[in-house]
Amino acid sequence: MTRIAALALAAATALTSPAVAQSLAGGRELSVDAGLGVKYSPEFMGSDNLNSSPWIILRNGDSDAGKAQGISILPSLNYLGKRDASDHPDLYGMDDIGYAGEFGVKLSWRMGDMTSYGAIRKGFGGHHGVAGELGAKYRYQVDDRLTLWTGAELGMGDQDFTGTYFGVGAGEERPGRAIHSPDGGAYIARLSVEARYEFMPDTAVMGRLTYGRLLGDAGDSPLVQTRSQPSISIGLARRLNFRF
């Protein structure tokens, strides 16, 4: 919970950063869905087994929602669970990876119901690399309460990031597990469908279904049991609105 609190504090700090404040200048409004839920996803990147983990919801941020098009500059946060080799027989002999937080910035460009975005974050804790995404999503307003999104994105990581989660170093090799030093770049492609149902004013149930496919050196890692990486998430979120 202390790590979650640290991420929340980082988000609060980012919302008052000069870059964000500048993007909100002129009486703009910042709104974002924030909450918690549960996510069922691979036990580790490349695993063919799913388990549950916290889903920290910080989504649908917009600093100019009243316009048909606009640019938003918002904080970007991510949280990665730990990987203990002792919990996975196939990882015997690998170094453990601790919990990791990622903190950075996200730039979104909205054109009507289509939004393109790019995010970049620096890791701390379990990894110290740089990661992010490039993607686009389409918004469909079913009615006053239900909103749907479809999206596609590429997950990116530098060599430090991919080496942490997909690399095999000296002393970690075993029969069938050779030394592997993956390059940085696009390591996963994802397609997603997301839903938001507002059952009370500014309070919503949110769900997300994602299919990911590991790419390149990451997918070729001897640690990868399957390139297919599905996940499903559900949680409760509160719509937060800030005026500047």
Can you describe what's shown?
A ten-stranded antiparallel sheet has the order 2-1-10-9-8-7-6-5-4-3. The protein has four helices and ten strands, in the order H-H-E-E-E-E-E-E-E-H-E-E-H-E. The model is unreliable at 1-26 (pLDDT under 50). The chain has one domain (2-243): Outer membrane phospholipase (ompla), Chain C (Beta Barrel), CATH 2.40.230. Strand 4 (100-111) and strand 5 (114-125) form a beta hairpin. The longest helix is centred in the first third of the chain and has 14 residues, at 2-15. It has helices at 2-15, 18-23, 159-166, 216-219, and strands at residues 29-42, 50-62, 69-80, 100-111, 114-125, 130-141, 146-157, 185-200, 203-214, 228-243. By secondary structure, the chain is mostly beta strands.
